[in-house]
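Data availability (excerpt). The following record was deposited with the supplementary files.
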Amino acid sequence: MRYWLFKSEPSVWGWNDQVAKGETGEEWDGVRNYQARNFMREMSVGDLGFFYHSQKEKAVVGIVEVCREAHADSTTDDARWECVDIKAIKPLKTHITLDDIKADPRLAEMILVKNSRLSVQPVTAEEWQIICTLGGIA
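Predicted structure:
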């Protein structure tokens, strides 16, 4: 199993929207960055990810699971763009902000710290455990 982080503007698609999709989940569509697309191509069903609210909150708010591997993005006819489907698993008891992450020296190498603009990114097993612990779900 691998770990990931999915960023979304909550005014466009937030945690509550994701939860409302239930077990069927939803496409993580609209990604138009080659590196983020390539990360989605690496994902397997059952991989877990952090759901991150960007913009104002800038915080990890929940856990999602990949429920469908990379496939054509239904929001475009351009065959270059693919996406995965994800479903909500559970919220974090405590939201972990970007400031919290930056303040923890154990997370200094996290991609979110070094490249905060990338919308889909890998998370190491160690980073995963630290954030889950901080978020009250480990």
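Summary of structural features: The longest strand covers residues 82-97.
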